[in-house]
Design a protein that fits this description.
The protein is built from 16 helices and 18 strands. The chain is an alpha+beta fold and 517 residues long.
């Protein structure tokens, strides 16, 4: 790690003012880098973390899941469908353009068109400019999750992203898994500017000297993110001093980090569920509820958590973890090998069948090991699995094509709310609304869809919880997917990196506030 002085520090020292922490340079090793610099191209943890570096949301979550004002410094409800947001004045984008209500309205419209994000913003009908620093967000009806949703609105520089490139392409176009102006050019309001990026090699950020949040304690001047796919190699880099901060630390390596000198293990309870989807559109037997139930009964979630995760996870029988409105305590894992064999026989598949399966090998903790374990478990009911694992940069394009019979996906609720799981993973696929965008099981149930839509308009908390619990029971009885566990989180850091203050259960640390002593 190197130390140096940024412009702000130098100015303070020149003025004779005390400054307790020098600026620092830091290298961070992750399992995978973001697939794009476009904040609206891929709804993923890596994209969200990048967004908090280069951009800023209107509102963000604190560590204890309270709402913290960011680019919106205050807000009030105008009527049951309208909330008014007052923007901070004097905030500048990296281009030098000033943030105004026009940028919020432009970004809102882009989110409504993004294949990955439009489902989140589907309950909203309009973003209306009141004046240069005031915006009204209007919902289609009473909506209890306005602030939750606006943690995903990172205003983009509308002047920078408007117009055409030299080859005539729209600068604001959202392109999935392809080259676009927004995927390679950035202008946000965030604590860092993009300095250099080579996909799969490294991303370099430098401190934004004009950052609006002068109260941020962050003192990192230059930050380099390098992808290191292998868990053990990532830990070795930390222990050797080649990197300063790593994510994640595999449960197999916890003791190794905890026992080493000069480094520490930082952990958080997580809410990301790891699942497998059963592709009914591609594989006919998965249309039979008995077959889907058999797959669920054949998988030993407790064994996966104990042996592969080393206890660093919580077995799951549904989408939302305990503590979420809608969590149903009656829905528990149902491992029963005899029951699984019975159901396969009843469905006419006593001798089993062959299926394809895909999983990433550098996205979730122990992802490929989990996939290998599930493959072995399914063999016990005569399901022969052709498993392919791949880096996440190759995985997402394959997943988006639903290119296998079983597909792994993890999901952290984008709004810290139960309905969001279904909105993306289990509601009927709908390109127009974005519902079911990540539902490669092609599960479709009008009753479930109606329940989620109704719950999203219900402002009575008790009634809403009953509706969401009922939705989870429907998914459980239908064996719509295979829940495995909620993944806990672990980072490794050198002792002078105050990681504890910036990591969170959402799994995208606020690195702009990171302090290195």
């Amino acid at each position: 790690m190197k130390s140096g002085l940024n412009k702000v520090t130098a100015a303070l020292l020149a003025a004779g003012l005390a400054f307790s922490v020098q600026a620092a340079d830091i290298t961070i090793a992750y399992d995978a880098d973001p697939v794009s610099m476009d904040p609206h191209e891929q709804l993923s943890g890596a994209t969200m973390e990048m967004s908090h570096l280069l951009f800023d949301p209107l509102v963000r979550w604190t560590k204890d899941f309270q709402f913290e004002p960011r680019l919106a410094e205050k807000w009030e409800r105008i009527d049951e469908n309208t909330m008014r947001f007052h923007l901070r004045q004097g905030v500048k984008f990296h281009s030098g353009n000033e943030l105004t209500a026009d940028d919020v309205v432009w970004t809102f419209k882009r989110l409504k068109e993004s294949p990955d994000f439009k489902a989140i913003f589907e309950p909203f009908s309009a973003a209306t400019k009141v004046d240069d620093h005031t915006v009204d967000l209007v919902t289609k009806g009473p909506f209890p999750l306005v602030l939750n949703t606006l943690t995903y609105l990172f205003p983009m520089d509308s002047k920078f992203y408007s117009g055409s490139t030299d080859d005539g392409k729209n600068k604001g176009e959202v392109v999935k898994h392809g080259s676009s102006f927004a995927s390679t050019h950035t202008s946000g309001t965030g604590p860092f500017k993009l300095k250099f990026r080579q996909q799969g090699v490294k991303v370099e950020y430098e401190r934004n000297a004009d950052y609006w949040d002068t109260k941020s304690p962050g003192n990192v001047q230059n930050m380099t993110l390098v992808p290191i796919k292998e868990d053990a190699t990532r830990v070795a880099a930390l222990l050797a001093g080649d990197v300063d901060f790593i994510k994640p630390v595999s449960p197999n390596d916890h003791a190794r980090v905890e026992s080493a000198n000069g480094v520490k293990l930082v952990t958080e309870a997580g809410t990301r569920i790891i699942t497998f989807q059963l592709n009914q559109d591609r594989f006919e037997p998965f249309k039979d509820v008995r077959v889907r139930q058999a797959v669920n009964y054949a998988i030993n979630q407790d064994g996966i958590v104990k042996r592969i995760m080393r206890g660093f996870g919580t077995t799951a029988g549904q989408q939302p973890p305990a503590g979420y409105v809608g969590h149903n305590p009656e829905l528990t894992p149902r491992f029963d090998l005899d029951k699984a064999k019975q159901l396969m026989a009843e469905a006419g598949y006593k001798d089993g069948f062959k299926i394809s399966m895909i999983a990433p090998n550098n996205r979730y903790v122990n992802d490929y090991r989990i996939a290998e374990a599930v493959k072995a478990m399914l063999a016990r009911i005569n399901i022969d699995v052709d498993l392919k694992t791949m880096p996440v940069a190759q995985y997402w394009p394959e997943f988006d094509k639903c290119a296998a019979d079983m597909l792994m996906i993890g999901w952290h609720s984008d709004t810290e709310d139960t309905a969001n799981f279904s909105e993306f993973l289990t509601m009927t696929r709908n390109e127009e609304t974005g519902r079911g965008q990540y539902n490669c099981g092609h599960y479709a149930n009008p009753e479930l869809d109606a329940l989620i839509e109704s719950a999203n308009l219900e402002t009575d908390g008790d009634k809403r919880e009953v509706m969401l619990q009922r939705a989870e029971k429907i998914l459980y009885d239908d064996a719509a997917f295979v829940p495995l566990h909620w993944q806990n989180l672990a980072w490794g850091a050198r002792n002078n990196v105050e990681a504890e203050l910036v990591v969170n259960a959402m799994d995208f640390p606020y690195l702009g506030d990171l302090v290195v002593k």
